[in-house]
């Protein structure tokens, strides 16, 4: 069916896309419109590729098979193409020559200044963004610049098309395949970035549709390339850090537009046509596309008016169909000149109008001219492309053509889109037969990718499933994986709607394999598990085995990712030194027994400090707590608060939080502690509560012992002979008794405002009775009371302290006016008194 492939059976093919078999050719008959499934007896397209660390075998029957790259099968770094190979590839990438008469190709007018500036900037290695509205002649200007920049860079000139690309990954892959000679290989992303970094070429990127961060990523990946980016004003601008020069294209001048119109018509303009061209220039703002279309209108008017015929043939004969006085076709109106698509389409051939209907059904994409005879049903329909291009209704996009800007909307308003569903279904069935044919290479299918995807989007579910099933292996073999993914997703959705479970399982399997090749493990697992479940329901053993093999590779990759160590488990040397300088463990100060002054007994700690390795490191130095006064033997062991390392109570969830807490980069001053609400009481007894309870019990015992000692000292029994005599009456009126810690070092006490009701327990006083034969350390005194002498003195026990701080020293005073009934004299005790 394709003349470029030496097949001629399409000449008699009907509009449905089927063709009778050629006798003796050995070729299977083409499918009919009702049964378009490819014959199972034909050779299957099996392609083996290298995708990163995997070997991918594209199997159109049971699904692609993927396995790790075998040892020794690794390919070395591919070599770059030489000048001859680049020239041959560039020639193959040009727009193909069209059969039939073509229109006059106008020369580049009014763009000399822009052309010189672009060439000068590219020669300096600068990247330029050429911005102009649709129809301003950007592609023609790029052709002129390409002719002058072919030998500037070591890797030559590369022309790419950015139409339909929103991410730079596919553009980088195309650039890599153009410069390097690496057939059947698609490297993974890291290897791809490493190879394209060494490319030094002048890249002409037409119809760019991306900007911002995506464009910055493309420029960073290829720092040795100079780009000429042709785009429209509505495309997103690059970032400020990209350093791209901006060149804006405006409309042509009035004189240049007139010259362009004369070159398109092929004759000088009349005065009426010159005035009409002036009005059109004002309305169209000098866009060259409008004057190419205006030249086509004038040529059609000349053909209708027969202005090119000889004078002797102007008079028609008797049997001539023309009227004797034909009416002259007037000039188009200004509105028709501004939107000429409907008028131009009405004056072209029927095959050209059928091609326009197909283009409207495919979203503006026009199939290759070799497909038009089968789609239109006319053997000479391939000449329609040249006819439409001469009228300015088509514009080149890479190696194909599509409707010019604004033409699709004008044709839809003229009812050219009423048969879109039928045309899309016809195109889908034709492409399903063509892409499944064994003689069609994957590269040719990739060149027709946009038209195939457009037919897939507009066809019914049955035709869409068939087209996706046959086109997916071809896109996979051509390394055009963006189109491969789009076909698979569309096919899976169409198969779900049509109820084709087997085809749905195939599409999910292929999506899982594609995700595995691209490193998306979660997506690959989900797609493969779905495919295995569907094939298990169908009892498809071969497909289930292929899916399980691919799923095993996903599990292995997930295990490798999970087993890989984190980036850093230890702090750097500088951070470790800073951490040691800032983190100083402060031991808790143990409580010591109170020793009388002058005593040589060493201070013994009550609790042994923990070893340095077991003590938690503090984030800041904490000064040891020094007791203010003497601490009793029964006092609770002092607790030194420990500052926690983590600033938050919740455990860290990320690696950055762990390193931020464990290895602070710089010491920060402690913020003033805000008042915190009282925490809720914890019912579980902790260590501190147990210690406090033990301390409270000890203090209670001390207080009770002190009461008992006072009671024994105030009894009327005669003290022992070896003990000192204790007087219960003050030795002097109005003079308080001065307590002393030892017999040689008395300590005066300040007078108190009021005397306590009873004698309180002293921190340094023993809980037992005075030892016989030893002078007591202080002279106890009693406050006179109205109770009989033989009754025990009243006493009050103070509540035990809740903290481990030093207890205040109580002061004792005597009543200056004792009563006569309370004058009970006893031998006064003095330090020098004997027993």
Summarize the helices and strands and which ones pair or pack:
Elements lengths: L46 E5 L2 E5 L6 E4 L14 H11 L18 H12 L4 E4 L6 H11 L8 E5 L6 H12 L5 E2 L2 H8 L5 E7 L4 H9 L4 E6 L13 E4 L5 H12 L5 H14 L3 H18 L28 H5 L2 H6 L3 H12 L3 E2 L5 H5 L7 H7 L3 E4 L2 E4 L3 H7 L6 H16 L6 H6 L1 H10 L2 H17 L3 H18 L2 H17 L3 H18 L2 H23 L9 H10 L72 H8 L24 H27 L122
Parallel strand pairs: 1-6, 4-8, 4-9, 5-7, 7-8
Antiparallel strand pairs: 1-2, 2-3, 10-12, 11-12
Helix pairs in contact: 4-5, 4-6, 7-8, 7-9, 12-14, 12-16, 16-18, 16-19, 18-19, 18-20, 19-20, 20-21, 21-22, 21-23, 22-23
Protein described:
By secondary structure, this protein is α/β, with parallel strands linked by helices. The protein is built from 26 helices and 12 strands. Strands 5-7-8-4-9 form a 5-stranded parallel beta sheet, with helices on both faces. Strands 3-2-1-6 form a 4-stranded mixed beta sheet. Strands 10-12-11 form a 3-stranded antiparallel beta sheet. Strand 7, helix 6 and strand 8 form a beta-alpha-beta unit. Helix 7 packs across helix 8 (271-284), helix 18 (449-458) runs parallel beside helix 20 (481-498) and helix 22 (521-538) runs antiparallel to helix 23 (541-563). The radius of gyration is 50 Å and the shape is extended.
């Amino acid at each position: 069916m394709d003349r470029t492939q030496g097949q001629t059976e399409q000449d008699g093919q009907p509009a449905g896309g089927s063709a009778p078999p050629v006798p003796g050719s050995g070729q299977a008959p083409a499918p009919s419109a009702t049964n378009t499934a490819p014959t199972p007896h034909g050779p299957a397209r099996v392609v083996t590729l290298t995708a990163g660390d995997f070997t991918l075998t594209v199997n159109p029957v049971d699904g692609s098979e993927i396995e790790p790259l075998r040892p020794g099968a690794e390919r070395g770094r591919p070599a770059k193409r030489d000048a001859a190979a680049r020239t041959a590839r560039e020639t193959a990438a040009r727009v193909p020559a069209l059969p039939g008469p073509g229109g006059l190709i106008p020369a580049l007018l009014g763009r000399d200044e822009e052309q010189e500036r672009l060439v000068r900037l590219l020669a300096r290695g600068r990247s330029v963004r050429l911005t102009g509205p649709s129809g301003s002649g950007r592609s023609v200007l790029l052709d002129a610049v390409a002719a002058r920049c072919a030998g500037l860079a070591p890797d030559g000139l590369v022309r790419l098309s950015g139409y339909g690309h929103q991410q730079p990954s596919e553009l980088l892959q195309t650039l890599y395949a153009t410069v390097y000679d690496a057939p059947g290989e698609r490297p993974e992303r890291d290897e791809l970035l490493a190879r394209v970094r060494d490319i030094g070429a002048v890249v002409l990127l037409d119809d760019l549709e991306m900007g911002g961060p995506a464009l910055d990523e493309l420029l960073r990946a290829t720092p040795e390339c100079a780009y000429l980016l042709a785009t429209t004003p509505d495309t997103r601008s690059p970032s400020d850090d990209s350093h791209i020069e901006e060149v804006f294209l405006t409309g042509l001048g009035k004189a240049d537009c007139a010259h362009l119109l004369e070159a398109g018509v092929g004759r000088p303009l009349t005065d009426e046509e010159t005035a009409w061209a002036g009005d059109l220039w004002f309305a169209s703002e000098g866009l060259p596309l409008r004057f190419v279309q205006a030249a086509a209108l004038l040529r059609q008017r000349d053909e209708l008016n027969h202005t090119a015929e000889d004078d002797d043939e102007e008079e028609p004969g008797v049997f001539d169909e023309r009227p004797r006085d034909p009416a002259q076709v007037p000039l188009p109106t200004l509105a028709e000149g501004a939107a000429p698509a409907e008028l131009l389409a009405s004056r072209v051939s029927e095959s050209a109008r059928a091609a326009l209907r197909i283009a409207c059904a495919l979203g503006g994409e026009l199939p290759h001219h070799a497909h038009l005879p089968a789609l239109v049903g006319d053997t000479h329909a391939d000449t329609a492309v040249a006819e439409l291009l001469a009228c300015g209704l088509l514009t080149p996009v890479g190696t194909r053509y599509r409707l010019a800007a604004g033409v699709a909307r004008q044709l839809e308003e003229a009812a050219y889109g009423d048969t879109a569903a039928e045309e899309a279904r016809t195109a889908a069935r034709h492409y399903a037969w063509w892409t499944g044919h064994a003689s069609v290479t994957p590269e040719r299918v990739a060149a027709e990718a946009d038209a195939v995807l457009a037919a897939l989007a507009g066809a019914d579910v049955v035709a869409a499933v068939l087209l996706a099933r046959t086109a997916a292996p071809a896109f996979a073999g051509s390394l055009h994986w963006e189109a491969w993914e789009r076909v698979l997703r569309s096919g899976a959705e169409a198969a779900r709607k049509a109820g084709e479970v087997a085809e749905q399982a195939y599409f999910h399997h292929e999506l899982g394999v594609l995700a595995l090749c691209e490193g998306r493990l979660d997506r690959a697992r989900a797609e493969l598990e779905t495919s295995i479940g569907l094939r298990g329901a169908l009892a498809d053993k071969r497909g289930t085995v292929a899916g399980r093999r691919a799923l095993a590779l996903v599990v292995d990759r997930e295990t490798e990712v999970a087993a890989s160590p984190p980036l850093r488990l230890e702090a750097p040397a500088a951070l470790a030194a800073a951490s040691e300088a800032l983190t100083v463990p402060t031991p808790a100060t143990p409580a010591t027994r109170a020793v009388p002054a002058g005593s040589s007994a060493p201070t013994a700690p009550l609790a042994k400090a923990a070893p340095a390795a077991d003590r938690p490191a503090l984030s800041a130095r904490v000064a040891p707590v020094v007791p203010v006064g003497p601490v009793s033997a029964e006092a609770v062991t002092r607790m030194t608060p420990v500052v926690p390392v983590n600033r938050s109570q919740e455990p860290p969830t990320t690696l950055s939080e762990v390193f931020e807490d464990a290895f602070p980069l710089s010491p920060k001053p402690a913020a003033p502690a805000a008042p915190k609400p009282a925490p809720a009481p914890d019912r579980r007894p902790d260590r501190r509560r147990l210690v406090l309870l033990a301390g409270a019990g000890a203090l209670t015992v001390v207080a009770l012992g002190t009461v008992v000692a006072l009671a024994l000292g105030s009894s009327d029994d005669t003290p022992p002979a070896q003990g000192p005599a204790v007087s219960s009456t003050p030795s002097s009126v109005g003079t308080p008794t001065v307590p002393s810690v030892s017999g040689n070092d008395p300590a005066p006490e300040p007078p108190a405002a009021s005397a306590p009701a009873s004698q309180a327990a002293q921190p340094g006083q023993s809980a037992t009775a005075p030892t016989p034969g030893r002078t007591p350390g202080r002279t106890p005194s009693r406050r006179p009371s109205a109770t009989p002498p033989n009754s025990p003195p009243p006493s009050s026990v103070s509540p035990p302290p809740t903290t481990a701080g030093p207890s205040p020293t109580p002061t004792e005073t005597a009543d200056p006016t004792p009563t006569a009934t309370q004058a009970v004299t006893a031998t006064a005790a003095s330090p020098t008194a004997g027993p």
